[in-house]
Design goal:
InterPro entries: WNWW_dom-containing
Number of domains: 1
Low-confidence stretches: none
Number of strands: 0
Length: 95
């Protein structure tokens, strides 16, 4: 998982602030390192996979909401994904 590339793609696709890009990319890296998606879904987490899954979230969701929406769906399906959530209070309004 290339965090630098993920940050760039998150900004281009979903906007948000540098702080939220870093938080989501950090959690994505932790999720990739955990091996959970490979074990549960036979899915290697790539930048493209993250963008694709976040793009499935409702259009009115912010980046953090999109990430947590996806993590919530993984939690419902497989359990033990809550640790990868991003705290909603990290959300900032872009300047």
């Amino acid at each position: 998982m290339d965090r630098t590339r993920l940050v760039d793609e998150l900004e281009a696709e979903f906007g948000g602030t540098e702080r939220t890009h870093r938080a989501v990319s950090r959690q994505a890296r932790d999720l990739a390192d955990s091996g959970r998606l490979e074990a549960d879904m036979d899915l290697t987490l790539t930048v493209e996979a993250v963008i694709s899954h976040l793009d499935d979230a409702p259009d009115d969701h912010s980046l953090v909401e999109r990430w947590n929406w996806w993590i919530g769906s993984l939690e419902l399906s497989f359990g033990d994904y809550q640790r990868f959530r991003v705290r909603p209070d990290l959300e900032e309004t872009p300047e």
